[in-house]
Request: fold
Amino acid sequence: MNDFHFNTGRIDTMSDLHEHSHAHASPKKDDFSAYVLPLSILLAAVILSFSITSAADSLGTSLSGAAMVGDGNPLPPAGSGDGELVPSNVPVMAELMDNAAGVLGSDSAPVIMIEYSDYQCPFCRAWYNSSKDNIVQKYVDSGKVQLVFKDFPLSFHPLAAYTANAARCAADQGKFWEFHDKVFDEQNIADPSGGTVNYTQADVKQWGADLGLNTTQFNACADAETYAAEIQDNMSEGQAVGVTGTPSFLIGLRNAQGQVIVGAQPYATFDALLASLTN
Reply:
């Protein structure tokens, strides 16, 4: 999601360079400049290339003090704290439940945790592998936290939006979370090392069949982009609350504003914040 542009300043055109170097010049200097000019341009190109490379190296190592993640999304340093405050105009947590793809836990849980995620994002899968079950067992099953899943498919993951729609189609048949888990589990099998998996629409449909869904209904729903508006609403909401990459999480008391945590942070980071809100 983050594109880095380097402003190298204005580079004169060839005609400008000739105009500048030939001003008030004698014929002898003109002959000499014919050799100097190409060398000057070559030297300038080398210097410019070095400057851009150095700037890119510096940017890549200075962002959050961590490696780049999520195909270009910066991940905050591990255990970076209690989260970032959302803009003052963001509604309280209870008012952000509309158009959720899936909800797990009690409607009376004092804390709501909203995940904005991309099914094809390897870092969303890393969080699923390392933290989701622990949070469900400790906080959701105990009635302290309600876990909400919202879609934030990134454009450079070609199957993310299709899968987000398909998951909602699975929800129509009462199997959102089963399908959600299936998508990540199948990618774990395909690439245990944790990289981006380039699965297909046929794979998505097969996963639905594996779960016993009515495939005629499921496949038609998936192909029709039935929930495109709801997915777009999730993305617009995520941007409004401060989502800058996937996965991102908005966590807070039900009747208060939340805090944003960006990235597949260690379970300890979420545990610390959730404990502070539920104790």
Q: What stands out?
A: The longest strand covers residues 111-117. The chain is about 50% helix and 10% strand. The chain has a mean pLDDT of 78.
